[in-house]
Design goal:
With 91 residues, the protein is an all-alpha fold. Helices cover 41% and strands 0% of the residues.
């Protein structure tokens, strides 16, 4: 191997394949900003996350609607309740 070929080999940039170029995680389409309805979430029926519980509790206290917080909500229900409280609708 010559010195020139070593230099070329070391400076080679990785080639992005067609699959990677179309992968929405590595190359998101800025025009594709759809927000999935919580009813369509694959994990929507799992218990709400700790972050959701904390945020929902805070929002319900700020809105003076402690009844809006329910520790047994699932992820989808918690998301909807959070959206309602943020919009001032409450429960």
């Amino acid at each position: 191997m010559t010195a020139n070929s070593k230099a070329q080999q070391g400076s080679a940039k990785p080639h992005k394949g067609a699959a990677e170029a179309q992968n929405p995680k590595t190359n998101p389409d800025p025009s594709d900003n759809q927000i999935k309805d919580p009813e369509d979430w694959v994990t929507g029926d799992e218990p709400m996350t700790g972050a959701q519980a904390s945020y929902l509790k805070t929002l319900s206290e700020q809105a003076h609607k402690p009844e809006a917080f329910d520790p047994d909500l699932d992820k989808a229900e918690a998301s909807k309740r959070i959206d309602e409280l943020k919009q001032g609708k409450g429960h």
